[in-house]
Amino acid sequence: MGTAYDRIYFKVSTDNGATWGTGFEYSAGGKSVEAHYERPSCEIGDSDTLHTVYAQSANLMQRALSSADVLQTERDTGFDVTAPDTSILTIGKGQTFSRSATTRLRFPYKDGSADTHVLRFDAAADPSTFASDAIDGTNDQLDDGGSQLALDGSTIHAMWVRSVDSDLYTDNDEDADTWNSAASSFTGTVTLISANIYTRSGSKVLAHVFDDAGTVKYDEDSLAAAAPSGTGDQTAEEPTQAGAGAETFAGAGAQVGLAPSQSGTGLANIVLGAGAQAAAEPTQAAAGAETFAGAGAQTADQASQAGTGVQHPQGAGIQAGQEPTQAATGAESFAGAGAATAAAPS
């Protein structure tokens, strides 16, 4: 009998998992390849293409399955992994996201030196270009600790366990595949981690579940403060209505107006307050005649009415005219600064 090798197969269900079709082998060489195929991790890319990253012994491999269930070319990424038979968590769960209008995929894995890396490539139908970035290159990933990626928009957060101290560490790629600020998240004897990002009570957190020396624990790392609740925001109180068609608004960052008063039909003394012109309440001396006074407003004395349709306005900023006199039917005399004086007609 020959050596038994592990293989990866896929099956398709068209009824939500009730039944499954025939299994197809992922390895391009089939049973002729004398190597283990293990630790697959799958993510959906563009056009419903399923991308699978897996280990072929110590080689990091990738292969795509189209939406028509057609296997694409099996690709050797050019990077090595810790042999799966010595590490149960060689490849972690991948993530798919959009950055600069391109769909991208990232998979955490433990390289041949047991360092934590991220495999990256774009979600083409059959990608052929791959790159790898070291998250923590200190020969440190615990065999049964694994590594996890979590997404915050297009920023990737990673969590992993160092073998030197069995503590949990975290870092993010600064939305640019740049890893250089590893920090301790939890001190203990950590194995088997799972992480995700979500918002709770207005705060964004990196949540994670892990085994600490046999005890399952939950913890959170804060990523962003709670949403603003007034500081830096304009705050407006509910407007009140003091008269028909008149409202006063007050609140931090808003003009403050006192409730208008209404002295006559359609007449209101509109807003007194910071940043607003102050106008005194108008008075009505005769039908259709009003006088307004206040800081920043023209001041007009009360107009007097000497005859039908004839008014005598006076005040700062307006021409001062004396009261016209009527010497004969249809004849008037006007006098005052800036006005012409006409003698009474005879």
Entry keywords:
single chain; 346 residues; mainly beta; four-stranded antiparallel β-sheet; 0% helix; 42% strand; globular; disordered C terminus
What would you call the shape?
Answer: globular
| DSSP helical segment count | 0
H/E order of the elements? EEEEEEEEEEEEEEEEEEEEEEEEEEE
Task: Name the structural class.
Answer: mainly beta
> Distance between termini?
141 Å
**What helical percentage do the residues reach?**
under 10%
Number of strands: 27
Low-confidence stretches: 232-237, 242-282, 288-324, 331-346
Report the sheet-strand fraction.
35-45%
Nearest-integer average pLDDT: 73
Strand order, largest beta sheet: 3-4-5-6
Radius of gyration, in angstroms, nearest whole number: 40 Å
The major beta sheet can be summarized as: 4 strands, antiparallel
What's the helix and strand layout?
Layout: E1 9-10, E2 24-25, E3 37-44, E4 50-56, E5 59-65, E6 75-80, E7 95-99, E8 102-110, E9 116-122, E10 131-136, E11 147-152, E12 155-161, E13 168-172, E14 183-186, E15 190-200, E16 203-212, E17 215-224, E18 240-243, E19 246-248, E20 261-264, E21 267-269, E22 283-286, E23 289-291, E24 304-307, E25 310-312, E26 325-328, E27 331-333
Antiparallel strand pairs: 1-2, 3-4, 4-5, 5-6, 7-8, 8-9, 9-10, 11-12, 12-13, 13-14, 15-16, 16-17, 18-19, 20-21, 22-23, 24-25, 26-27
